[in-house]
Amino acid sequence: MAKWGQGDPRWIVEQRADATNVNNWHWTERDASNWSMDKLKELLLAVKVENEEGSCEVTEVSKLEGEASINNRKGKLIFFYEWNIILNWTGTAKSGVKYKGQVEIPNLSDENDASEVEICASLLKDEPHTQLLVFMKKEGVKRIRAAVATYITSLKTEFAQGMILPTVNGEPKEQDAEPVPKHQPQKVQTSNFPIQPHTSGVKIHTCKITLKDVFLTSPEELYRVFTAQELVQAFTHSPAVIDASKGGRFQLLNGSVSGEFLELDPEKQIVMKWRFKSWPSEHHATISLTFIDKNGETELKLEGKSIPAKEEERTREGWQRYYFDAIKQTFGYGARLF
Length: 338
Hints:
This protein folds into two domains: about 30-155, CATH 3.15.10.20; about 205-330, START domain (Alpha-D-Glucose-1,6-Bisphosphate, Chain A, domain 4, 2-Layer Sandwich). It has five helices and 13 strands. It has helices at about 35-45, 130-155, 220-225, 230-235, 310-330, and strands at about 30, 50, 55-75, 75-95, 100-110, 120-125, 205-215, 240, 250, 255-265, 270-275, 285-295, 295-310. The strands form two sheets. Strands 7-13-12-11-10-9-8 form a seven-stranded antiparallel beta sheet. Strands 1, 2, 3, 4, 5 and 6 form a six-stranded antiparallel beta sheet that branches.
């Protein structure tokens, strides 16, 4: 028999407030079905898109069948969800004529990324054809896909809090999907923009970077992706804080990126102070994003000034991968690269 204080740490319970499920060794499960139903309804009923033809909005969640749960085994979170969803939507033409239709999401599950989920929009039987259906299939479906992505992110962060119990040392065991309590500093995802040691009081050489890309969406929609908190959380797959106002601050990718909005010209330009957490203390670059309408597509030009010279390639690759490519993958805005 092991002496007191020795032996397999999975079974050491003295110093544990609850003296149960030591070091998260035992399987625990939390039902997320009711929470998911409320969250999905909240997100989907907020979907509304408008253009010169009129507007389309989700008016009812007529079918929401399925279940969701989170399992904790050996300190690792396993997420399960499977939903069959039917939405009712209404299109209103500029003339005032209304059209009714449905959106079917036959298999929203953990087996597929949000960008892969099948979403089918249609008009109800006997409804006359309208260009609003084309608009709903394109822009409405993109907005619904963003809502789905936000649900998945919220399930893995907001609802999952507290699933990882303290270990014998009082700290949660590290694992891939660990939520971050609101009252504690958020951990940085090491896979996103790896963190380097801080330096301060040292003169650094800086440089400029430029990027240009094309997105299959309007400047209005792409601008929202950069300024709406729920959309930022969707494409970064992590919690974010976004105050989209002049002087407003932002933080994303679990704290590895932060800054302040300097100028906001809707659908045209965003200028911000922007930094990696790993950069010398208080050093910010100036990032300008310019949105150019290209007949249904948007050309996005990025110019970055005062980038630490040693961070030039990492910053350029980070913007391409964790912003541009992630946005295309999440919302289906894929297009050719220059």
